[in-house]
Amino acid sequence: MSELRKSNTDLPYFITLTVVDWIDIFTRQAYCDKIVESLSFCVKNKGLIVFEYVIMPSHIHMIAQSLDGNLNFILRDFKSFTAKKIIKEIEENYQYEGRSKWLLHMFEFNAKYYRQNSKYMFWQKTNYPIELNSAHIQYQKTEYIRNNPVEAGLVTDGEFWQYSSANPTSPLRTSRM
């Protein structure tokens, strides 16, 4: 089944957005802030509902929903917009991004294999959507998101990870299921 059809209902989905080659780009606050700003925009203007999220160094997990059943289109636009914004940030602020040449090279290298990307490819193509059609699956995915930074050895408690819905002072306000 195509990815378009996989997240084309009004149910919530567990989504994973991964940077190409699992590059640790979200180790910089500026890039995480771009993600939060863009998600907030989608919540306010595109009908996105984010129940849980975590921004890990190379990927993002979310439980999200679109009431109009167009989650796939919102994610497509989100990925396109954030890729352009973050790449522009890397290009324009190379003085504080010591890996700028390498990062741009990697994004350019990955774009060579996909016709849709003219110069750079930032995100992997798939979002790995999993429909959350039962309370058990919703609970399991919520716990996975909240514990992901702990399992990765980044913090001792999920509440300590800044870019996570488990953190009470998270910069992104989330809804509750």
Automatic annotation (TrEMBL):
InterPro entries attached to this UniProt entry: RAYT_transposase, Transposase_17, Transposase_17_sf
Coiled coil: none
GO molecular function terms noted in the UniProt entry: sequence-specific DNA binding; transposase activity
GO BP term (any one): DNA transposition
Domain Transposase IS200-like stretches: 8-124
Listed SUPFAM superfamilies: Transposase IS200-like
PANTHER family: REP-ASSOCIATED TYROSINE TRANSPOSASE
Name this polypeptide is given: Transposase
Species of origin: Roseivirga ehrenbergii (strain DSM 102268 / JCM 13514 / KCTC 12282 / NCIMB 14502 / KMM 6017)
